[in-house]
Each structure stands twice: as structure tokens, then as C-alpha cells.
Amino acid sequence: MSNVRPIRNETDYDAALARVDYIMSTAVNDELRDELDVLSTLIEVYEDEHYPIDLPSPVEAIQFRMEQSNLSQADLVPYIGSRAKVSEVLSGKRTLTLKMIRALNTHLGIPAEVLIGDGNVADLQKPTREVQWDRFPIRELLKRGWLETNKQVAKSAEDLMAGLLQQAGGMQAVPQALYRKNDSTRQNASMDPYALQAWCLYVLAEARKQTLPATYSEGAIDQDFLRFLATLSRLSDGPKRAVEALAQKGIAVVYARHLPKTYLDGAAMRTKEQVPVIGLSLRFDRLDNFWFCLLHEIVHVWRHLKDEHDFFIDDLKLDPSDHSEDWSVEEEADLLAQEALIPSKKWSDADLLSRATPSRVMAFAQSVNVHPAIVAGRVRRETGNYRLLSQFVGTNEVRQHFEETS
Asked: Within 13 Å of residue 362, how many CA atoms lie on the same side as its CB?
């Protein structure tokens, strides 16, 4: 194990994150696995202290207990009163009564202080005076230069965020989908909505600065176009060319490093002017991860970015099949991206999982006209063995093609 040090400040924190990123993208032995466990614990302790998350809302707490205990809405009737009342409570149209709170606390074990609500979880769709501006990661945003400020004039968190909000299109730029669990989000349960809000606002602001050569229209994307993008992976500047090809379709792509407590790989959204935007965090700087994430988000733009689902946040480490909710859109995005990268018939015929030698991986990648990283990544994912073929996945070969504006 390397010399693991305590995390005392932002410099130590950044170094620990970089080390974890490196370990996650390399062949992990027992020594590195121990180091990863220790670093993860240190990072979690530091984030809990410096980036705390408030209690969930009452509705979020009820939904979590329903998922945890495999309960249906009908199972809540004895505690809330009727199917109609259950539906209204879960949709946010009806507040909990004291009788409901006592019943849910007694029979489902949901803490009373969560059900009562302490007003700490602000809804960013409400008037701006109700937003808890100091919950945004202001220090980190300033450090990255994502906020405009005059160092000679002290400003409040609200004043600092005002410029970014305006550039992104206003307070309504990011819908309420970020603050509730539904089928348009693929979010880690530990996600901080304020940090995620800030990341999305920055992505939207940067997208609105771009001048695209075309306007997006329905039908601009299809499976053939996805397959074309997959073949670009063979090129040394493939990621850059893919972004250019998307711009020709009227789709903006923005790279922005993930903020602490965001746990995301990518997002699909629209600007105020209805321009489709794909945001990429590139938290794992690997070619296999990049190409799958990019095509996954493109599928969201193509198939799912509608009025009822106008925002998609994706932590691709989460498997849709592990969730009881309707994640059909996520499953479809996974399947269509996977099919574009490696046609299922050819994958099945190759039977690489039985003997994934370097020579077979190289030969198969050439036969399907994609970078070997894509083949190696799928072998590693489907076998669950991330020590395999680490020399092929293109570690540290993506971010070099992208530049953050700050």
C-alpha cells in the first residue's frame, strides 16, 4: 500500500480523488484494493464533514421505505387513509397529517423528524427567497472559476449564483426531476441535489455559449448514426470527431468535471432555447467508459428527451435491473448504445467471454470496426473481472481531447 495520508484540506482531497480514479482504472491487486478501501473511507469522512446532505423530504423517505420493503401504494392505505390520499401524498399534492406521521413512524419505522420535515431541503422550483444558497458548493465553484466574482467586493452565495443562473437560462433551467426519484433519473442515493444542480447549471450555461452549425430536428438521430459514431472510436481523435458530428446534428456537448457528491457520468438535457445538450463528467478517464456513456446519452436525446422526461442524470455504475421502478428508458438506452458499439449477433457468435485473449480481442475489434477498448470494456463488465485486459481500455486517453472553459 502506498503512503496513505489523512485528508486535511482541499489539496489532500483532490489528491485522494485522483488516486482513487487511477486505482479504479488499472488492474487492481490485493494491495491496491486495501488502499482503495482506506482512501474511500477517508474521502467519505471528509465529504460528510465538508459537503453535508440534509435529511430527505418526507415523500423521499416514504418512497425509499416502499422500495426497501417492496411495498405498493395499496400497502400504505392503512397508514394514510385511502388510495386517493396515498397518491396525493406521494405526488406532493397533500401534506402529511399528524395521524399519518404517527402511523408511518410506528408501523414503517420512518423517523418522525424526517416525516415532519425541518425545512432544510429547499425546492429550487419555489421562489428564490426559499433557496438555501449556502448549500451550493460555492467554494468549489469559485475554485474552478465557474462563478464570476469581483474579489474586491464580498458577495453572498445568492449573488454569486445569480450570474450562473442567468447564463443557464434562469431558475427554472433545471427541472424538479433532480429532487425526486423517478424513471428519468439514474442517480446515486447519496447524491447532493445542490451540487448536482450547480453542475447542470454550468453545463447549460456553457452549452448556450456554443454556436452550433445546425438546428436539431426529429429524425436527426437513428441507429445508423449511432453505429457511425462507434466506428469513430478507431481514430486517435475519435472523441473530438464525435463531438463535431453531434454539433452538425444540432446537439451541444459539454465536458465538466463532476463535483463532490454528484456521482454522475453524464446527462441529457435541453437549454431554454430547446437545444439538446449532452453533459459529460469523464469521471473515469477511459475510452470504453466514454464511448458507452456518450452513446447512452445520445439515445436519451433521440428517444426519451420529451416534455414528460426533459432531464436525464446518469450514474452508469447503477444497473437498471437492480431497481424496482420503471427504468425502461435506461434499459433501452443501455441496449441501443451497446448494440451500436458491438452488434449483438456478432458478439454472441464470437464467444469472447470463454477466452478473452489479447489477440482475440484485437481481431474481434477489427472485425466490428471499433476500438479494442470497447471490446475489452464489455468483456470486463460482463465477466465482472476488472483486472482483465486493462491494457486495452484506454486509460487517460479521453480528457486530453476535451477542454473545460475554466
From this structure: 5
**CA–CA dist 404, 206 (Å, integer):** 9
Local structure of residue 376 (DSSP, 8 states): H
User: What value does the mean pLDDT take over residues 123-136?
Assistant: 61
Q: Give 101-115 as a 3 state SS string.
A: HHHHHHHHCCCHHHH
| DSSP SS3 for 49 | helix
**How many residues would you count in the chain?**
406
Looking up cell 482475440 gives 360
What values do phi and psi take at 54, rounded to 5? -70, 170
- At residue 83, the pLDDT reads 86
Residue 176 in this model has a pLDDT that exceeds 60? no
Alpha carbon distance 93, 87 (integer Å) = 8
The HSE-up count of residue 364 (CA atoms within 13 Å, CB side) is 28
DSSP state of 335: H
Domain locations in the chain as residue ranges: 10-50, 58-116, 193-340
Q: Can you spell out the DSSP letters for 237-267?
A: THHHHHHHHHHHTT-EEEE-PPPTT---SEE
Return d(Cα 84, Cα 256) in angstroms, integer: 43
For residue 47, which amino acid is it?
Answer: E
Neighbours of 39 (CB within 10 A): 21
Evaluate whether the domain defined by 58-116 bears CATH number 1.10.260.40: yes
> How is residue 370 annotated by DSSP?
S
Mean per-residue pLDDT over the chain, rounded: 83
Integer Cα distance of 34 and 27 in angstroms: 13
Residue 204, helix vs strand vs coil: helix
Which region among 17-31, 149-163, 218-232 has the lowest average model confidence (pLDDT)?
17-31
Mean pLDDT: which of 81-90, 171-180, 188-197, 324-333 is highest? 81-90
Q: Which of residues 248 and 314 earns the better pLDDT score? A: 248
